[in-house]
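re: ur question from earlier - yeah i can do the single chain one, its not a big deal. heres the input i used so u can compare w yours
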Amino acid sequence: MSDVQQITAAVGAEAQELGDGRTLSNRELLWALLRKPQFVLCSLLLLAFFTMAAVPKLFTSADPRFCELAKSRQGRGPGHPFGFDIQGCDYFANVIYGARPSVLVSICASFGVFILAGSLGLLAGYFPGFVDGLISRTADVLFSIPGIVVLIVILNSVQNRSIWIIVGVIFLIGWPGGMRLMRATVFSVRNREYVLAARSIGVPPIRILRKHVFPNAMAPLLAMTTLGIGGMVGLEAALTFLGVGLQPPSISWGSQFGVAASYRDTPHLFIWPALFISTMTISFMIIGDSIRDALDPKLLR
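and the output i got, formated as tokens:
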């Protein structure tokens, strides 16, 4: 093996080391997570929600748009465990079919924010000067404007709001916080020995970022993103409740909240979507906490 190959191999090995000299493999990370009962339980709950969003017919055979006005706002009954909505539609079917928008918005928006914030944070942290200044000042401008106000203004100006329009707007204004975190982490990684060694043997900057900097700087952003997915679920519901989210005939938990607000004497209209949103949000947050703890080198000592 040549000297260059030996140095490259040493760089790759050192890039995977933790602060205490141990190596955190994918198997060790998975085992550390599976030893946490709360992680396993929440993962099973989220798997159920994802299945519900992907194949709602596995959970109910009822048509959420088949309504009988004579049963408007009636409580639970045989074959209708959640009762009926104001139009006499089966509320269990409505809640099941309402999972898809919440899952799509939360997962797609969070994944997009992770990619954009991670990429911009890498560039800002590794290339100080013009690149860092341009990205950071753009983030400062977005930080200075209340995010929920921007969302309301933009979405209120769109005539036909679909799931992807909402995801796109959240994606565009949601990256500054993650970018700042990634930038700060890259600052602490860019001058470590394995990065300096890679530079000294002429490894291109893009390869250094992809192979050495990003894998060792992504843990805080990954944990932050996982924790933030739960907030995305609530954000989608809040936007629809405020009238700037999904539009009829789309079914979502947020739209069910909006209807329930006008019928406070019918508590089941509020309780069931609230229970599903809370369970999904808390599950994401617990999983985010578990991943953050598992990726913390100090906890492995």
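Confidence is low (pLDDT under 50) at residues 1-23. not sure if urs matches, ping me
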